[in-house]
Structures are given as structure tokens and as C-alpha cells.
């Protein structure tokens, strides 16, 4: 049996080698571990970063959502405002129309009845003992002193006794010239409130009714003429109907 004895120098080298190997391996392991850990850290960092990015993205998304929502709200508000504006405009138009309506109504009432309440008596072209020819106007039986109104706007061209120049049969009378070329005449008046050349509006009081001239009783004799003078009378009821006034 022989005992193998190692050369001491070789032994040291082996140990050194072994130690070195171990160390190396240890070092390598540590390195690996470090590397792994580093990777993990990086991963963690990466995760953190990605989480941060994600969070940021989420925040951004939320912000974007908020922005979209805000924009939508803004748009809705704008839409509402526009709707409000349109409604206001519509209301304004309605108001304007409403406002314009009475004016239009006033315009259509450019002709009126010469007296308020009355009883129709002798009509146009009616024959009778009272007139040498046929009746030249429409009679409205009314008590003496009833306000007589201009049937339409115009200018007074005759006003006074003796039918304003047309003859004594008419008593006190007024003749008004109108823009449409027609003339209206009012006779047998008790009082005249206007003078020649005076402008009057439709419905304006021009006189009080009476029983002057050739009259069988208190009434207003009303004519529509094509000239200021006697002999040019039209059917006054038909004329008033043509301008929207029914007597
Ligand atoms: Zn008459």
C-alpha cells in the first residue's frame, strides 16, 4: 500500500484553483443574482414606468374624456344657447307679428260706419215724395245730437249750411274728399265740428246729427260721390261693403 503524497506546491495551486473557481463561481453567481436583481429592478422600474405611463395614459384618457365631456357639454350648451336664441328669435318674430297685427287691423279699418247705432231708413235710389229724383244716399235714423264720424280719412271740402253749397234740402252738410278719389257727404246736421281744408281721420267726429233742411225726422243722410257735388252719388251701402264695412 503506498500513500500518494501530493507535491505541496501543486496542492496549493489546486486549492487556489478550486478556491478561485469557487470564487469565480460565487462571483458569477452574485453577478447573475445581481443581474437578475437588476433586471428585476429594471423590470420593476419598467413596471413602475409602465404603470406611471399607464397612469399617465389613464389620466390623459380621463382628461381626454373630461375634455370630450366638456366639449360635449360646451356643444350642448352652445346647442341650447342656439335653441334659446332661435326660440327668442321666434318669439321676437311672433311678438313683431302680434305687434304688427293691430296696425294691420287698423289699416283694414280705414273705413267705418258714419254713426254708431242707428236704424236704416231710406236707402239709395229709393223713390218717394221727399225727393224730386230718386234718393241720392242712405239714411240712418238717429236722435239729434248723435256724433257723426268721417267714414274714411280725408280732407273737408265743404262744410256749412245750405248743404255746404249743394242746396237747402241738405241743411247743414259736410263733404270730405278721400284718397281713393271718392267723396263722402253728411247732411241734415245740427252742428258742424270741422272746417274746409281740415284733414280728418277715419272715425273722427266731424259733426252732430240733426234734422235740418228737407228732412222728415232726425237722421243722417249719407252719400258717396265721385265728385264733391250733388248728382254724382254712388250706392253708399255697396261702396261701404266694398271697403269691408257692412251697415
Ligand atoms: Zn237721405
Describe this structure in words.
The chain is built from two helices and eleven strands; from the N terminus they run H-E-E-E-E-E-E-E-E-E-E-E-H. The protein is elongated and about 85 Å long. The strands form two sheets. Strands 1, 2, 4, 5, 6, 8, 10 and 11 form an eight-stranded antiparallel β-sheet that branches. A three-stranded antiparallel β-sheet has the order 3-9-7, with no helix packed on it. The chain is an alpha+beta fold and 247 residues long. Among the domains are: 77-108; 119-242, Glucose Permease (Domain IIA), CATH 2.70.70.10. It binds zinc ion. Zinc ion (ZN) binds at residues 122, 135, 137, 139, 221.
Describe, in short, the structure shown.
With 247 residues, this protein is of the alpha+beta class. It contains 2 helices and 11 strands; from the N terminus they run αβββββββββββα. Among the domains are: 77-108; 119-242, Glucose Permease (Domain IIA) (Distorted Sandwich), CATH 2.70.70.
